[in-house]
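Structural prep section.
Before we set up the soaks we want a predicted structure of the protein with zinc ion in place, mainly to decide which crystallisation condition to try first. Input record follows.
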Amino acid sequence: MFTVQNKTRAVKQVARVRSSAGVDTRQLKALCERLLRTQPQSGPLLKRLLARSCRAGRHSAFATIQNGRCAACNMTVATARIQKVKAGEFINCANCIRFLYYDPR
Ligand SMILES: [Zn+2]
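Run finished without errors. Recording the tokens verbatim:
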């Protein structure tokens, strides 16, 4: 049965893509969509960051906030700005310009 073999191969390919790209591609897409929906004025900057992350070979347009710091460059984020992010807003890291978002996990 060819169909079963094809299906198995497709699943393996997806698994390989996921594990090699630090950020889940599906999650990246969801973040882009949410950003453009809530803050459409950020579109041009997002495009620039995505182009930059492609050249670097990794996703660097978004980063989470961990322990009050940007998870990508370790820059401290002001408490007032963290509150905005927790409320669902995207802000830009003052150092690396990535869009910061809150991930409760
Ligand atoms: Zn940063």
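Observations: The longest strand covers residues 62-66.
Flagged for discussion at group meeting.
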